[in-house]
Amino acid sequence: MYQYDNIDQTIVNERVAQFRDQTSRYLSGKLTDDEFRPLRLQNGLYIQRHAPMLRIAVPYGLLSSKQLRKLADISDRFDRGYGHFSTRQNLQLNWPKLEETPDILEELSKVEMHAIQTSGNCIRNITTDQFAGVAPDEIIDPRAIAEILRQWSTFHPEFSLLPRKFKIAVSGSLQDRAIVQAHDIGLEFYYDEAQKMAIRVWVGGGLGRTPILGSVIREHLEWEHVLTYCEAIIRVYNLHGRRDNIYKARIKILAKALGIEEFKKQVEAEWQYLKNSPNTINESELKRVAKFFTAMPYENLSDQDYAYDEAIQNNKAFASWVKRSVHLHKQKGYRAITLSLKPHGLAPGDATSAQMRTVAELADLYSFGELRVSHEQNLILADVKLQDIFKVWEKAKSHQLATPNIGLLTDIICCPGGDFCSLANAKSIPIATSIQEAFDNLDYLHDIGELELNISGCMNACGHHHVGHIGVLGVDKDGSEWYQVTIGGKQGNDASLGTVIGPSFAAEEMPGVVKKLIDVYIKHRNPEERFIDTVRRLGVNPFKEHVYA
Amino acid sequence: MLNSQLILNQSISLDEWTYIPLPSGNEEVKKQAGKVVLFKLTGESLPTELQIDETVIPQTGKIIVPLSVYLKNRDALQTRLKNNEIALWLATHETLDVLLASEKDINVFPLIAVFVERFQDGRIFTLGNLLRTRYQFKNTLRAFGDVLQDQLFYLKRSGFDSYLIKTGKDVHEALKALQSFSDPYQGAVDIAEPVWKRKVR
Fold first, then answer.
1. What's residue B1's pLDDT?
2. Mean pLDDT, to the nearest integer, of A325-343?
3. Structural domain harbouring B34
4. Residue A340 lies inside a defined structural domain of this protein
5. Interface test with B, best of A243, A258, A273, A276 (most B CBs within 10 A)
6. Are residues A429 and A539 located together in one domain of the fold?
């Protein structure tokens, strides 16, 4: 993974000093609440219901075991011994003290980490596929460009106070796992006819209050121009995006209002001036960064391991975990493994400091000391030998990290919701846990098969409910909490937004509603048909009729 | 110590310019966006003819006049412009086209200022960048209004060299903020090359 040089380290150190100064000016009354707000937000610090919340950046979801141990130490020392992995592949602490955040940032800087631009109206953490570099369907590993984008966007002076937040995702595989169509800018890498790395540029996607899938603004962009082309897009947005209404301020609203053709015309006009300007990437910089993302020193192994196969034969629990949690790998004899942060009945995406240390140890022992965070809020060991998988399972199981539910109904994607977040209209964690408890029968769960269930506590959509096969949105009606249900949303190349099935439900009705949706699916599904495919084939009506019968 | 809120070329300086405000107009009309032309202005209104006509222009001294007022009184102000007495200011939601349509060479102005109504308004950075890089403005570029210490570094990187710090804020502390980061990553107006072209990494 990328390692800081002197320049990177100096920037992060100077940021710690700057934020320490800003915090102390705020605490001494020299900065007003309004003046401090964008400063703390651009350092990931929210003021929440019970305490501030600090969002720590995990660039494109990649962590070393050393960094994870530091996160464990920080959550013990400054928080309540756990953290929450978010849908932007970041880590959130729910109970830090405002006056201690500069110290937390200083601790982070010691392991090449920070909280820069994890919130606020600026370019946010760049996200990507959790299987980047190891997925068999990968064409281009997007992480080198993601790192170059990270550096370019860090304190970009022109784009430090945009109309609204700005999210970029990169993907280089056949199957999109980074939801590029639901980002302000989505960059899809491929090889063009000349076998040169090129990018398909998506723009104007986003979830939130007005969910919109992005449009292709440029089919073919040569990689060296990616920074200047993004500058052209964001410049048009910075000048013309709305600043009078926070709900209409995202780039998707501008692109929709102008129409993609007019928007594209303005971007291309701007780019004529920026093309080949100094931020154009050169070969040597790409090479310098790419060398941090070359293949691991793999052993030459057979793609079959008899002890592993035997364990699957003889151990039903192991077999059902393998079925869900072990993913194919580019390299023979290796697999990627997802460790579930979704044990039934606990907050999805939460990890205790002890679990973090366990995962760090597993990474050191079996996966070259690295791990990834997925936007589905699980942790991934990307490079595990077949012969080690059983040992990983045993250790993970003893720390509640091996629930065999990856990709299934109880692998719920969920924001912190009304229990923590001051933006939320409704709680989301209790909905998730009550649904998990209602589907605690593993055989039944596996029989239902692949299903993505996403829960957001408000229309800001941190739980990505619009792209859940089943989406749940917390809404406020006359001061009480209700839940609106959508079905038919999907991430990936054939992304779609879910359709609302009807009037919203009370919290205690939710497990029953999901059960009824599943009943309709079980009754009507064709062999091997997933829930989402049945919904697409039948439409919303049969589901709606049964739920409201 | 100088009693001034002005930072010019990285030191606290006396302000030799007088700012000419627009008389307050009618209540701002917030229009719904949707049409291209309105979108450009984000629903914010430009000065009205009445405001422009009622602006009082002092007869002597170095003055910073609103762009719209200058354009309306262009002929009458040419002699003073030649004497380096006329500078311009514009708001962040104004676009540069009218200025560029009127002046062949914007370097006739010894100073252009951008008014920041709310410090969260980042359009000023793009305006600074365009004035410096695309339109090659060489003279003093000033930010005034809700100008705070914590945006100075970005303003500097976007081409500004003059900052009138908001009244009541400590200008000496603000001065330090210009040095927040020693080696920024990306190329911008002040340092055109990105760090990977400036240094061996």
1. 67
2. 98
3. 6-198
4. yes
5. A243
6. yes
| Number of domains making up chain A | 4
Q: Of A221, A255, A290, which residue sits at a domain end?
A: A290
Query: Is this prediction's ipTM beyond 0.90?
Result: yes
Distances A234 to A55, A165, B89 between C-alpha atoms, Å:
24, 11, 25
The closest alpha carbon to A312, from A324, A304, A320, belongs to A320
Closest residue of B to A227, CA-based?
B186
Domain harbouring A22, CATH code: 3.90.480.20
Cα–Cα distance for residue pair B91/B94, rounded to 1 Å: 5
What local confidence, expressed as pLDDT, does residue A316 receive? 96
Q: Mean of the pLDDT values across residues A392-415?
A: 97
Q: Which residues of A touch B123 (CB under 8 A)?
A: 238-239, 243
A221 forms beta bridges with A199
Answer whether residue B36 shows pLDDT above 50: no
Question: What is the rounded distance in angstroms from the CA atom of residue A373 to the CA atom of residue A338?
Answer: 9
Residue to test with chain A: of B31, B156, B198, B201, most A Cβ within 10 A: B201
Alpha carbons A385 and A267: distance in angstroms, whole number: 47
Residue B1 lies in a domain: no
* Residue A225, domain CATH: 3.30.413.10
Measured CA to CA, the distance from residue A215 to residue A225 in angstroms comes to 19
Average of per-residue pLDDT across A224-233: 98
Report whether pLDDT(B38) > 80: no
Contact B156, B190 (CB under 8 A): yes
The mean pLDDT value for A290-308 works out to: 97
Establish if A513 belongs to a structural domain: yes
Neighbours of A473 (CB within 10 A): 26
**A459 and A533 share a domain?**
yes
Say whether both A103 and A36 belong to one domain: yes
The CATH number of residue B148's host domain is: 3.20.20
- The total of structural domains in chain B comes to 1
Q: How far is CA B181 from the centre of its chain?
A: 23
Domain that holds residue A376: 306-397
> Considering only residues 90 to 109 of chain B, which have any Cβ-Cβ distance to chain A shorter than 8 Å?
95
pLDDT for the residue A91: 97
CA atoms within 13 A on the CB side of A245: 13
- Within a domain: B194: yes
The answer to whether the CB atoms of A282 and B197 lie below 8 A apart is yes
